[in-house]
Amino acid sequence: MTGLVLDAGAFIGLERRQEPVAALFERARRRSVPLVTSAAVVGQVWRGTARQTPIALALGWPTMSVADLTHADGRLIGKLLAVTGGSDVVDAHIAVLARKRNWPVVTSDPEDLKQLDPTLTLHVV
């Protein structure tokens, strides 16, 4: 089953209760679509406030996984950033997660991801 890779923009849209993002998350939940994000994305978006209840709920779904940035991933990320001239480790981790799974990325910032890997499939929210 194809899943979705979620960048920070997906969670920010969920927190802001943007209708298209909330609908995407709800469809994924109802259909048991596998979801993955980077632990670094969680670090970017998590503040632990009541407003983040939708994020907290989504992170607890059985179909949601949070990938740690491993030593092996760190090396892939470093090489990717060197080749592309990028500097955003979190975006690069999202690109690596998407490449490994061949899954589309849900993002609000397609330009940075396209610079890192123009072959990624992006779902812009």
Protein architecture, described:
- The model has no long low-confidence stretch (mean pLDDT 97).
- Helix 1 packs across helix 2 and helix 5 crosses helix 6.
- With 125 residues, this protein is α/β, with parallel strands linked by helices.
- A five-stranded parallel sheet has the order 3-2-1-4-5.
- The chain has a single domain, classed as Rossmann fold.
- The chain is globular, with a radius of gyration of 14 Å.
In short:
54% of the residues lie in helices and 14% in strands.
List keywords for this structure.
single chain; 125 residues; Rossmann fold; five-stranded parallel sheet; 7 helices; 5 strands
Work out the number of β strands: 5
Reading the helices and strands in chain order gives EHHEHHEHHEHE
Number of helices: 7
Read across the widest sheet, the strand sequence of neighbours is: 3-2-1-4-5
Number of domains: 1
Give the oligomer, counting copies of the same chain as homo and different chains as hetero. single chain
Classify the fold: give the CATH topology: Rossmann fold
Shape by Cα distribution: globular
Average pLDDT rating:
97
